[in-house]
Each structure stands twice: as structure tokens, then as C-alpha cells.
Amino acid sequence: MDRLHYFVILTTFVMSTAVGLTAIFFFILYRRRSETQTTPHIEPAPLLEAAFVIIPLAFFLLWWVMGYRTAIGLATPPADAMDIYVQGKKWMWKFAYPGGPNSVNVLRVPSGRPVRLLMTSRDVIHSFYVPEFRVKQDVLPGRYSQVWFQAVEPGRFQILCAEYCGAGHSIMRGEVIVLKAEEYEDWVSAQHRGLATKQDGPPTALDFAPPLGNLVDQGRRLAQEQGCVKCHSVDGSQHIGPTWLDLYGRRERLSDGRIVNVDEGYITESMMDPFAKIVDGFKPVMPSFANKLAGPEVAAIVEYIKSLQSDAVRTGPSEGPAYAPVRGR
Ligand code: CUA
């Protein structure tokens, strides 16, 4: 990104200076010397004229190639990236880790590991911007957008909102804290211990707040409450809607013959706009959940669906990630 930036800036700077100086030089050299003087008619050589077109064109094409490759790299998170959910709202950033803690305005990540942010907004359009990481991505209500980065070394980096979103736009700031891998693990387990102690002992006000932590458990509960599981089985059996077992990552054939990859974006779209893509063999009977589910609730259901992989189910939670599913609860 930086190389492209400086290359474009330097080239245009040098060229505009050259054009400006040449113009000044010609103003003086060809100034009108008498009242009757006329300008001679000049035909440039075809070769010269071709050079004037081809050289700038070559630069523009080169920038396009460099920019295209950069854009593809920015849009393609590595397969082993860790996922963190982000919700923008007036005027703060909320972060939810699939296996554990939530946080507001502070995003802790390990260094040297690609991180993919799955982002949505609760109200208006925001834009997640970390200048030092050279990432900026719009965050939209009712949809998921993603961005990824890999922090090289520990440090603290400012998060800004780069889309005007109201009176508090300029204070919608946060911080990425990049920790060494060990420190990050320590922090995650400390958060888990904190959550665990909160659950025993006498009830406090916190017990009546919406539960923090495990998105998969939240998603499982929401799927019950919202009636998702009345139509979608989680054990592979066919029902009114497609089964959720092994849904994530599947290639689904649609009624119009198209094939879609089931990812976070597709699952979210199917909740918000169920008729957009109808899976072959199923009827368009699902109600829309737009405005019924908040961003983190959508994230929780998506994480629950992602957890329903038959391998993970067979091997059980001990072998899988900390948030592997428990069946039949
Ligand atoms: Cu959020 Cu500007």
C-alpha cells in the first residue's frame, strides 16, 4: 500500500512540476515580441505524439496492476485467520470473540497472526479505520463486511471511524492492543476465569445483564427462542429448511441453478433477506429477521451454525476449539 502510494505521489509530483516549469519556460521563450507577430503552425511528429499517449498510459496501467493486486490481498483473508466480531454503533466499537470475552473500544489481538474482523452496524454506516494497519472498511447495518490484518509487533494503534455518522463521529475511537502471543493467551484465559467466577456465588446485578462470553452458547439459545430450530435441524436430518449441520463451508445449489459458498455473509443475508437465495428443493417460506435480531445476536447464531460441523460433534469439545458444540442441549 505504501509503495503504491509513494510511487503514484512521486511520479505525479515530478511530472506536474516538469509540466509547470516547461510552461513557464515557453511563456518566456515564445512571448509576443511585436503587435503583428503570429504563432507558427506546428505539426508534432507522429512518433512523439504516440509517446505522449503511451508513456502516461503505461504508468496508469502499472498503477492499476499494483492497486489491483493490493486490493485482492486486502480482500482475501488467509484461511487460518482468527475471527473477531465487530459491531459499530453510535458511537463506539464493540468486539466479540467467538470463544470468549466481549469488549468495548479495545481490541486485543496477538501479534504475528492474521485476524479477520466480521463487522456490522447497529444503526448507521460507520467505517472501521486503523491508519497504521492501512485498513479501512465500511460497516453497514443488516450486513456483514470483513477486513483483515496481521499485526507485526506488539503496540497500541488507534481505531477511527471514517464515515460521518452523527454528532459523536469524531469521538468514535478505539484502540487495537497488539500483545505477544503468550500475553494474549494469558489475557483470554484471565477473561474466562473472570466469567467463571461471576457464575458462582450469590447473584449480582451482572447475572441479570445479558450473558457475556461464548457466542456459540448464545447462538444456541437464540436459535431456540427465535424458533430457527423448528425448521432447521442441527443433526443433518431434512426438514422445512436446510439442516445446519455442516452448513458452514458447504457449497449450496440454489433453485435458479447458481452455486453459493456458505459463509458468514450468505448466512447473514439468508436471515435478513431469506428470499434472496433459495436453496434448491426448499420452499421460500422463511420469515425475515431484519430488525428482529441485533448485530451480536446475528453473530451468535452465525457462530452457532459454524460450530455445527460433524467432525467437531464427533470428537467433542475437548479436541476441538474451546467453543465446540455440545449436542442435544
Ligand atoms: Cu461512526 Cu463515524
Please characterize this protein's 3D structure:
The chain has three domains: 1-21 and 45-76; 82-205, Cupredoxins -  blue copper proteins (Immunoglobulin-like, Sandwich), CATH 2.60.40.420; 215-313, Cytochrome c-like domain (Cytochrome Bc1 Complex, Chain D, domain 2). The chain has 329 residues and is α+β, with helices and mostly antiparallel strands. The protein has helices at 2-29, 46-75, 181-199, 205-208, 215-225, 228-231, 264-272, 295-307, 310-315; strands at residues 82-89, 92-96, 102-104, 106-110, 114-121, 126-130, 135-139, 145-150, 155-161, 174-179, 251-253, 259-261. A five-stranded mixed sheet has the order 3-2-1-5-8, covered by helices on one side. A five-stranded mixed sheet has the order 4-10-9-6-7, with helices on one face. A two-stranded antiparallel sheet has the order 11-12. The protein is built from nine helices and twelve strands. The structure holds dinuclear copper ion (CUA). The site of dinuclear copper ion has 9 residues, from loops.
Q: Which key phrases capture this entry?
A:
329 residues, Immunoglobulin-like, Cytochrome Bc1 Complex, Chain D, domain 2, 3 domains, 9 helices, elongated, disordered C terminus, binds dinuclear copper ion
What's the short version?
By secondary structure, the protein is α+β, with helices and mostly antiparallel strands. The chain has helices at residues 2-29, 46-75, 181-199, 205-208, 215-225, 228-231, 264-272, 295-307, 310-315; strands spanning 82-89, 92-96, 102-104, 106-110, 114-121, 126-130, 135-139, 145-150, 155-161, 174-179, 251-253, 259-261.
